Amino acid sequence: MIRLLIKAASVALAVALAVALAVALAGCATPPTGFDYSAFIQAKPASLLVLPPLNDSPDVKAPFSVWAQATRPLAEAGYYVLPVTLVAETFRQNGLDVAADIQDLPIPKLREFFGADAAVYLRIKEYGTRFVVFTSDTRVEVEARIVDLRSGQLLWQGNAVASSAEQQQQSQGGLMGALLAAVVTQIINTSTDAAYRYADIANERLLGLSRPNGVLPGPRSPLFGKPPNTAAR
């Protein structure tokens, strides 16, 4: 018995020492650095061209939902953003209507077509409603990068997610009630394209000024020219 107690005490001491060491190392670790905005600040883009997004999701409505709502947060951030309808019509008249072909266009050609300072390349990673373990989750995930059309240099990149799971509460109707509610929610959200609303939230989180390490304020914003760490509200 005494040997067992001694052994248990030794194990507990070893665990305690390991935890203490991990905490000490975490305290000494270098904190993650923010995004390097040096190229962004030097480029000072004033006008942005938002390209039609690539779509990795199975939902064919995703590109239209995300693209249509991506210009608002950028305009509110202080940039002149070319209207989506104008951009889409310009590409259509030049025989381009596939997002992959458009995003593969040479940067000088985009500059020649639209005269914008920079282009916003979007990619949809997830879009739609899915059934997950007695719950239904409407989720949109979008990636973006901003490229200077004058130099071809990457100015910024990031990603954001919006999900109905953030607002869901535990069901009070038991297992069968939760299952039924999830099925009904999935049917309704899929048929009404509930992901459209979450695409707007994801775009705001991705391209709005409230995002840490996000897009810098444009020249029409009262926050223009302030250091990156004060750009977020």
Question: How is this structure best described in words?
Answer:
This protein is α/β, with parallel strands linked by helices and 233 residues long. It contains eight helices and six strands; from the N terminus they run H-H-E-E-H-E-H-H-H-E-E-E-H-H. Strands 1, 2, 3, 4, 5 and 6 form a six-stranded mixed sheet that branches. Helix 3 (62-76) runs parallel beside helix 8 (195-207). The longest helix has 27 residues, at 2-28. It is globular. The model is unreliable at 1-32 and 169-192 (pLDDT under 50).
Structural descriptors:
233 residues, disordered N terminus
Number of strands: 6
* Cα end-to-end separation: 62 Å
The percentage helix is 40-55%
Overall SS class:
alpha/beta
Q: How can the largest sheet be summarized?
A: 6 strands, mixed
Regions with little confidence, pLDDT below 50 for 5+ residues: 1-32, 169-192
Shape descriptor:
globular
Order of helices and strands: HHEEHEHHHEEEHH
Strand content: 15-25%
How large, in whole angstroms, is the Cα Rg?
A: 24 Å
Could you report the average pLDDT, rounded to the nearest whole number? 78
Tally the helices: what do you get?
Answer: 8
Q: Mind sketching the topology for me?
A:
Blueprint: H1 2-28, H2 38-43, E1 47-50, E2 54-55, H3 62-76, E3 80-81, H4 84-93, H5 99-103, H6 107-114, E4 118-131, E5 136-148, E6 154-163, H7 174-191, H8 195-207
Parallel strand pairs: 1-3, 1-4, 2-4
Antiparallel strand pairs: 4-5, 5-6
Short note summarizing the structure:
The protein has 233 residues and is of the alpha/beta class. The protein has eight helices and six strands.
